[in-house]
């Protein structure tokens, strides 16, 4: 099945890298420099919502399970979520912004050394596929519950909506 992830706010799905002295956390980028959401990240967010459905068989079958030290791989494969449109190389830098945050103490003053800067992506739509989906109805219920994704999703970043845009390929 093909899904669309539409962001309504700035978002950050990290690469795990820093930008040296300028930025503390960089966004995951592909070979062209475009932002993407790693399939593993997408799978984790959808799994978290799938667990709220109280259908353990669906979760274990689709996402995998680890019991008594034995791991069983899930049937579903989640691709990276990518931008499908061709974007002129000159415009790529406009997809990214840097935002700053600092810790505030009890007196309302900034704590020394607490300034952090993260790279974020402007609101856009990305597309991904979920392969080997055996229960499309449950998967749709799970991904439709994802409302925020990525870093600082409880602080206003990453508000999104995931919708079905195509059928299962299998």
Automatic annotation (TrEMBL):
<dbReference type="GO" id="GO:0051607">
    <property type="term" value="P:defense response to virus"/>
</dbReference>
<dbReference type="InterPro" id="IPR005537">
    <property type="entry name" value="RAMP_III_fam"/>
</dbReference>
<protein>
    <submittedName>
        <fullName>RAMP superfamily protein</fullName>
    </submittedName>
</protein>
<dbReference type="InterPro" id="IPR052216">
    <property type="entry name" value="CRISPR_Csm3_endoribonuclease"/>
</dbReference>
<keyword id="KW-0051">Antiviral defense</keyword>
<feature type="domain" description="CRISPR type III-associated protein">
    <location>
        <begin position="5"/>
        <end position="161"/>
    </location>
</feature>
<dbReference type="Pfam" id="PF03787">
    <property type="entry name" value="RAMPs"/>
</dbReference>
